[in-house]
Records
---
Amino acid sequence: MAEILNMVHELGEGLFGPLLWSLVWVVIKVVLLLAPVLFMVTYITLAERKVIGAMQVRPGPNRVGFFGVLQPLADAVKLIFKETILPEKADKSLFLLAPLLTLVPALLSWAVVPFSPELILADVNVGILYILAISSLGAYGIIISGWASNSRYAFLGSMRSVAQMVSYEVSMGFTLIPVILITGSLSLVDVVEQQKDWWNIIPLAPMFFIYFISVVAETNRSPFDLPEAEPELVAGFFTEYSAMSSGLFFMGEYANIVLVSFLGALVFLGGWLPPLSILDFIPGIIWLGLKAGFLMFVFLWIRATFPRYRYDQLMRLGWKVFLPVSLFWIFLTGLVLQLTRGIGGE
Amino acid sequence: MGLDLKSLLQSFALKELAQGMAVTLKHFFKPTITVQYPEERTPISPRFRGEHALRRDEQGEERCVACKLCEAVCPAQAIDIEIDPRSTAEKRLTRVYDIDETKCIFCGFCQEACPVDAIVLGPNFEFFGSVRSDLYFNKERLLANGERWSNELNARIAADARYR
């Protein structure tokens, strides 16, 4: 592996010169990272329709290609060739910027997601903080889309969405703090490596559930999909969007789902570590994929199961239940760590 | 506040959520019940009321005797019949027999009223028109339907005969 890498480096430096090559190499790495991510984003749409179909005792899309495997491509072609309608009273530049502002942060976060101890684009030592910071930017895309559309439904949807994302981001951030306390590091590689003895889900089970429910709300997924709330708000913040501009919102939403599933697998489910050391022969990236895939499945499973929350229930759950419980658990974790090993004095 | 400890514990243990998810997971593994329509079809009753047809008798003559009972009974007034002026007392014929399928409510009264089993509602429900006039059926269209579906129509009448 290392020899092949060296060969590629030598070849590239010969072709582009050392300075230009380092830039080209970054671009190559980004493409190699984003291609599988976008592939997953495309195919989680099909998985969603298949899984929900199966739970409703029907087959889901099965006409386009064998087992419907070409359905996402057909959808993409349709979205690209349709007309993007610009509402007359919309703020044109913001209107077109907003979908990008939701999609790009969801893709940016992948820079620090490790797939194995070596396979990581940028092993920064504040990985978790970086993800929390970048994923908060997604709220801007939504509020800008609601404002720029100049439509009451879009505006109400974006107000709801932002209030919801802000509320749940707090508890989502708090659920990660016990993990950081235990690890003593913000680097995602360290967080995973620290779970060698037991996964974080064992001491922090309630935090894992709160994390998962929070990210379901954070990604505006059912049963917390009030921003879209078809019965009352048409389609919420992307009411006025059509064709690929609304497609970009969907891509952003699904990219976020994939991202938080991987983050949950890394932080709570031991990342690339196998559940039993006997199973070491299976490469870590497959374990990570299985765990993240399971979490993505749970996303779809939840959507197939629960009805939509009422807005005041949603806010009550976020502020009156998750916030105190996660704060209490931070305190508890700190206390236990203090008693067993003393904070900072490992 | 009716918050007793048991229900509090249950809601924190996500008991009812787990129950709900168990139900959907159970259905996830059930075989699908979908009928893949153009390839697979659900069975239809011999009394199914689909597209209209005018039948001919064994000699190939039109069965219709222009009695206009169907026109009279039709609640949607979708049927329009004019008698052929060349008709005799022995042989009554229609000149016009139009059914407006856009008006028809497929109640089957015309079929019930017909004394000679001429107008029937067939098994075919897969007909369409891209403009309204495609659904104004004239006599040729109805007789052609009768010929196209004659085997099915005879079988349906035979299957239902013992209940008449």
---
Amino acid sequence: MAIIPNIIFAVVLIAGIGFFARNVRKLARNIRLGKSTDRSDNRSQRFKNMARIALGQQKMVVRPVAGIMHIIVYLGFLIINIEVLEIIIDGLLGTHRIFSFLGGFYTVLIGGFEILAILVLVAVTVFWIRRNIIRLQRFWNPEMKGWPRNDGNLILYFEMVLMVLFLVMNATDAPFQQMQAGNVISRFIAPWFDGLPASTVHVVERSAWWLHIVGILVFLNYLYYSKHLHILLAFPNTYFASLNPKGQFNNLEAVTNEVKLMMDPNADPFAAPPEGEDDAPPEKFGASDVTDLNWVQLLNAYTCTECGRCTSECPANQTGKKLSPRKIMMDTRDRLEEVGKNIDNNGTFAEDNKSLLDNYITREELWACTSCNACVEACPVSIDPLSIILDMRRYLVMEQSAAPAELNNMMTNIENNGAPWPYNQMDRLNWKNEG
Amino acid sequence: MKVPTMAEMMAEGRQPEVLFWVGCAGSFDDRAKKITKAFVKLLNKANVEFAVLGTEESCTGDPAKRAGNEFLFQMQAVTNIEVLNGYEVKKIVTACPHCFNTLKNEYPSLGGDYKVMHHTQFLKSLLEEGRLAIEGGKFKGKRVTYHDPCYLGRANGVYEAPRELIRKLDVELVEMRKCKKAGLCCGAGGAQMFKEPEKGNKDVNIERTEQALETRPDIVAAGCPFCNTMMTDGVKNKEKEAEIAVMDVAELIANAEEL
């Protein structure tokens, strides 16, 4: 009967990881709904970017307070995972602190975990205060109402509870405390349990141990339903991000083909399309829904953790316009989730008469963008909200001819006289002879 | 003013060292034309063999592309590339960061591959080659703040060339709260120049002007004709136009020399 806890542990572990794997598959399928874009070039530069931006947290420290706090939580997350490994082995084999044979090194490890745990607790509390007491503007923008705000706080509570459980687990571990090595923090917590019978302390220790590992599995599965996927997706996202100068917008190939045909003096405008080509639907220009975006843009949407640095740097948002680059990313993700659920329920996508444009992102938001790249620069994980805005403008202009009237004037001028204003092209050099 | 065109040069069987891409603002906008002329004076002073396309130049297509009209952009691009390649242009300099960005980044994949420089980069290279000397003179000791144009700064990482030129003028270069990578837009990019802004509580150029005024400058320097317009409007809105001048980096240098 002694192996029953091990069996229960194995079942919980498999269920936790299995459910997570199922959601990861769903995530991958949804991202693949995007159009193809080739990011297989320049692997060494891409690895460097990932190492620098995701692993090295380089862009986080642009804002030092949040950046340093974040690095603490990030290190805590990475390093305390070694402890989770021990817990898993102990749980499966019924051992107790299997790594303790490492002796002095183990002491250093556990001591390090305990210090990190307390630092994480402090950092997470600071985060909570920033969100809820100081109420930093970027956490109170309109798109942060309701679930996004609760989601942010819930993650902080999760982390607090996990860290407390870890410390309590160590504090109530009698053999571990007796060693008087590595318990740099928990030795101050242990006295709280003085006077309780040893059996009760042991129950507390076991409970904390179980709740800690179950809590981690629950948190793992919570990721998919929250903004918190960035802890995984920040890595592929920084790897696949554009390597071009920020000002370079892609040239649409479908348009290039049409333009070349128009400029080709030998092209026959009345020629019948080649055999077999007339079945293919004509290429749609720009994006009105998530499936018109490319997979990197969709990966961007899942990676966004709603920190709002983009929005707080956006000139349009700062001056009271409706545009918020963070909302563009959140809308893209929410619509993609909706499309994904639709596919889950119907096998293939069943028309729902909704789209990213208008149902989620309004035209007013799209036209407020100055394409200044402040949002792209601000993002700590290389998300590009501007490329989505541009693709949606392309749809509005090329598929719907729905540009604001003044922009239509500007474009007519360029077409007619090669300048955005109505001046004669023959007058282009007049400045030479003026005063 | 000596401004040869590519056509004239070709007729004489000569190839200029660099093509000066004037841009629509530089050709037609009254304020921007002054920048164009200041830059030409500097080119002439440094004995740079340059030429312009003149009436053969046409909009790069930048505002059309940012507005979402990829068709119009590519039509403009392909037409311009045909002209540029016809003249076997190798090197282009322009005083407009929007033209700079488009020519440099978006023309190559359409068949137009040139070495493209912003005029501040080009002036800096003239300085380094000893072809142009900058003397402080007129602006000595003045407080100058430099506004980073988005399409020069963040978009292409050019932050230092304009600043180095300004420092040569013996002025006090003061940075705004938001500068370089974190610089705030003037509000004109992404085709906003050609339309009314969306509803909000402030215009972007007013916000940016306020940031500039915080540095108590004598001069707001810019490197873009559109930023220049936006900042000039902002300074006027704050009724500071009598005390504060908005000037392009090329104008600062040309005026310092009283060219």
---
Amino acid sequence: MPSLKDIKKRIGSVKNTQQITKAMKMVAAAKLRRAQEAAVAARPYAEKLHSVVSHLAQREDIDGHALLNQRGTGRALVVLMTADRGLCGGFNANVSKEAERFIRANEQGFDAIDLMIIGRKGRDFLKNRVGDKITKVHENITADATYKTAQLIGQEVVDAYSAEKYDAVYVIYNAFQSAIVQIVTVERMLPIQSKETDEELQDTSIDYIYEPDQGEVLSQLLPKMVEVQIFRALLESNASEQGARMASMDSASRNASEMIGKLTLQYNRARQAAITKELMEIISGAESIK
Amino acid sequence: MADKLKLEMVTPYKRVLSEEVDEITAPGFVGELGLLPGHTPLLTTLKVGELTYKKGNEVFHIVVNWGYLEVEEDTVTVLVDTAETADEIDLARAKAALGRAEDALKTLPHEDKKYMIMEAALQRALIRIQVAGNGR
């Protein structure tokens, strides 16, 4: 049976922890709102760009462009998006495990698979599992991802792809569904998939004007598409991270309250027992004097 | 045929505009473009410049910075990196940027990579100042 003092100490420490988890939950909630707004605000741009590209793909024979061409199955690059910080439930582990699974499943399909990791936690997780495949790690960029950051990463990816260093590029990230639901998503980024829909093919008859010319427009549009995809994935991943952290900190706070309740009960029982014992001693002492 | 154009302008950060307008003038890559309802389908890149649109008798000015413009069935979609309306422009900052760029251009050799960057900065600053002047 722990002493009164011990129990009191434990209650104190659990309370401290609870304060921290509560504060983290609040912070995550505030950040979630901003991250969510940013992710939602970026959607129209990504959608419009996608529709421009797929219009283009429908109308013209654009197989000639490097970013659209299917190449062999040489090297592949996997871009994994994780967080820099932990304490957000299964957020990092889920997406990292998926990356590991993806690599194991496709190892036979490609000559080699390289891994580019965004976020410290993903590196920590995969260092000992597939450490030899990690070629690049970007840290401290997810928290305030700007379009500029996405542009730099996009450029890196497009350059490596155009130089035929890689024949396929995949991105793995947590897609934001709602504050408590994240979906681990694997997308093929390159070669670009032109999601053609047959119903709109009659458009081909319309004369389309390109300025300066079709090749020029395409060669600027396609890298942009990669950048935007990375940007969107970064924002979604960030929003998911905050959502995951909020949920896990919420449940941690609740667990702490539960524990405090149990400990308080124990404390009160121990106190009551001590009082009873003292009373017994006094009474028995008084009896013996008589 | 509709007698209005639907103008949609988006940047990576937000949807800037979604309006019915009468006339658009945009800084196309090979030269200024005037768009009226019933325009042929068109896809062009945009350079740094001033995009104006008319709505009734009112004229609006927006600074756009690199992007695309697509016209299809009287819907004009503008995808740009940044877009600022006249009252969003910080005139003092633009003037400071202009000064900086001019100084840098005087000292830098033409072949330098920075020269191109500063030249673009100069252009942006000039357009901002121009649009800020027009809008007020």
